[in-house]
C-alpha cells in the first residue's frame, strides 16, 4: 500500500471529473471532528495491488502494520489501474461520486430492472435528465426517488436525445449496482 | 648421549605436530563461534562515523570556492530530462496542497472541455436548425409551385372547355359557313 504518484493522481482525478463537478474538491477536505477522534481527520488515496482506495488517513496509517501480501482491501475501492496506465472506475466508487455528480439521468421504475441487469438506458425509460448535457459525458443514473443506481456515458446530447425514438439508447452503461451480485466473485479479488 | 639427545629432540619434534594437530581439531569445532565473535558489524560501522564527527583542524577546513577549481559545465543537454541530483523513482503525492493543485488543474481542463463541447454542440444545433428551416421552406416552395401549376392547368382546361362549349362552337360554325361560300369551282364540261 502506497500513496499515488503525481501521474496516477492526475489520471484518477481526470476520470472522477468526468462524472463530477467542482464539488469534487470536497473529497480532499478534512472531516469534522467527532467524539471518537477530536482531531479532524482527512481522507487520502492509497494504491494496493493496482487498486485505488479512498480511505481515512488514520486507518491508512494503521494498515501499514499489515503486510502487503496479506492486505486485501481497506476503505472504499474506487477502481483499478490497468497495465496500460488507464484507470477503470468500479461500481464501489458510486457512493463517493454520486453526491458530487454534475449530470444525472433519472430512470422510471420500469427502467430500473433493465438497467440493473446490465442494459443501457433507452429513451422510453428516462424520467428526467439534466439539461445542457453534451455527448459522451459521464452521468450518474438515478432512480426516480434519487437513489443512485450506477453510472454511464451519454450517447446523445440532450437536444439530440429529445428527437430520438423511444427505443433509442440515451446512456451507455458503465457500471450498475447489479454488479455487486453479478461480479461478486471478482469484484474484490486481485 | 648426543644420539639420545637427538632422539629426544626428534621425539619432541614428532610430538609438536601432534600437539599442534590437536588444537587444530578443537579449533574446527569452535570455528562457528569464533566467526560470530569476530564479525561485529557495529564496530566496523562505528569507525567512519567517529571520523566524520571529529572536527577537522583549521588548516584542513576549506570550501569548494577556495580551491579555485574551474567551474564544472553544468548545462543540461537537451536530451536529458532529469537533473543529475533529482529524486530517482516514483514521486508520491501525499500532500494536500499538491493534491489540490492537481485537482484544480484537471478541473479547469475538464471545465474548458465541457464548455467548448457545449458551444460546439450549440453551434451545430443552430446550423442544423437553420438547415431544417431552409429545407422546410424549399419543400413548401416546391409544393406551392406545384399547386400553382396544377391550378394553372386546371384553369386552362376550364377555359378551353368553356370556349368549346359556348362561343367557340358558334364561331366555328360561322367560320365554316364563311369559308364554304367563296369556294371556287372549276368545271370541265
Please sum up the structure shown.
The complex is a heterodimer of chains A (190) and B (189). By secondary structure, chain A is an alpha+beta fold. Chain A is 24% helix and 28% strand.
What is the global morphology of chain B?
Answer: rod-shaped
Low-pLDDT stretches of chain A are none
**The CATH top-level class label of the largest domain in chain A:** Alpha Beta
* CATH architecture grouping of the largest domain in chain A: Roll
Roughly what percent helix of chain A? Answer: 10-25%
Computed over alpha carbons, the radius of gyration of chain A is 18 Å
For the largest beta-sheet of chain A, the strand count, sense and barrel status come to:
6 strands, mixed
Largest interface: A-B, 23 and 22 residues
Our measurement of the CA-to-CA distance between the termini of chain B, rounded to an integer number of angstroms, reads 211 Å
What this model shows, in words?
Chain A has 190 residues and is an alpha+beta fold. Chain A folds into two domains: 95 residues, Nuclear Transport Factor 2, Chain: A (Roll), CATH 3.10.450; 79 residues, PUA domain (Archaeosine Trna-guanine Transglycosylase, Chain: A, domain 4, Roll). Chain A is 24% helix and 28% strand. Chain A has seven helices and eleven strands. The longest helix of chain A has 14 residues. The radius of gyration of chain A is 18 Å and the shape is elongated. The mean pLDDT of chain A is 90. Chain B is an all-alpha fold. Chain B contains four helices and no strands. Helix content of chain B is 71%, strand content 0%.
Amino acid at each position: 500500500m502506497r500513496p499515488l504518484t503525481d501521474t496516477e493522481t492526475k489520471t484518477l482525478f481526470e476520470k472522477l471529473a468526468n462524472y463530477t463537478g467542482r464539488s469534487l474538491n470536497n473529497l480532499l477536505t478534512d472531516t469534522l471532528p467527532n467524539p471518537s477522534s477530536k482531531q479532524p481527520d482527512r481522507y487520502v488515496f492509497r494504491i494496493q495491488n493496482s487498486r485505488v482506495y479512498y480511505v481515512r488517513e488514520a486507518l491508512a496509517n494503521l494498515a501499514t502494520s499489515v503486510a502487503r501480501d496479506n492486505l486485501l482491501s481497506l476503505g472504499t475501492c474506487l477502481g483499478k489501474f490497468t497495465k496500460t496506465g488507464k484507470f477503470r472506475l468500479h461500481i464501489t466508487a458510486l457512493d463517493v461520486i454520486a453526491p458530487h455528480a454534475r449530470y444525472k439521468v433519472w430512470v422510471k421504475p420500469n427502467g430500473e430492472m433493465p438497467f440493473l441487469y446490465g442494459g443501457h438506458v433507452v429513451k422510453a425509460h428516462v424520467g428526467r435528465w439534466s439539461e445542457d448535457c453534451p455527448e459522451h459525458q459521464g452521468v450518474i443514473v438515478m432512480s426516480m426517488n434519487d437513489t443512485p443506481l450506477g453510472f454511464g456515458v451519454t450517447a446523445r446530447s440532450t437536444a439530440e436525445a429529445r428527437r430520438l425514438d423511444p427505443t433509442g439508447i440515451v446512456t451507455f452503461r458503465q457500471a450498475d449496482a447489479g454488479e455487486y451480485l453479478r461480479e461478486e466473485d471478482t469484484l474484490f479479488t486481485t | 648421549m648426543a644420539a639420545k639427545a637427538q632422539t629426544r629432540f626428534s621425539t619432541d619434534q614428532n610430538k609438536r605436530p601432534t600437539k599442534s594437530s590437536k588444537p587444530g581439531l578443537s579449533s574446527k569445532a569452535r570455528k562457528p563461534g569464533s566467526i560470530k565473535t569476530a564479525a561485529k558489524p557495529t564496530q566496523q560501522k562505528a569507525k567512519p562515523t567517529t571520523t566524520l564527527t571529529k572536527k577537522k583542524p583549521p588548516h584542513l577546513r576549506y570550501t569548494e570556492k577556495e580551491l579555485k577549481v574551474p567551474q564544472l559545465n553544468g548545462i543540461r543537454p537537451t536530451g536529458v530530462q532529469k537533473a543529475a541530483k533529482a529524486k530517482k523513482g516514483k514521486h508520491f503525492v501525499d500532500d494536500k496542497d499538491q493534491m489540490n493543485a492537481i485537482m484544480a488543474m484537471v478541473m479547469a481542463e475538464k471545465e474548458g472541455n465541457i464548455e467548448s463541447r457545449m458551444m460546439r454542440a450549440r453551434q451545430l444545433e443552430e446550423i442544423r436548425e437553420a438547415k431544417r428551416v431552409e429545407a422546410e421552406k424549399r419543400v413548401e416552395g416546391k409544393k406551392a409551385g406545384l399547386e400553382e401549376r396544377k391550378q394553372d392547368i386546371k384553369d386552362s382546361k376550364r377555359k378551353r372547355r368553356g370556349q368549346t362549349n359556348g362561343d367557340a362552337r358558334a364561331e366555328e360554325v360561322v367560320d365554316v359557313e364563311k369559308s364554304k361560300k367563296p369556294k371556287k369551282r372549276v368545271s370541265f364540261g
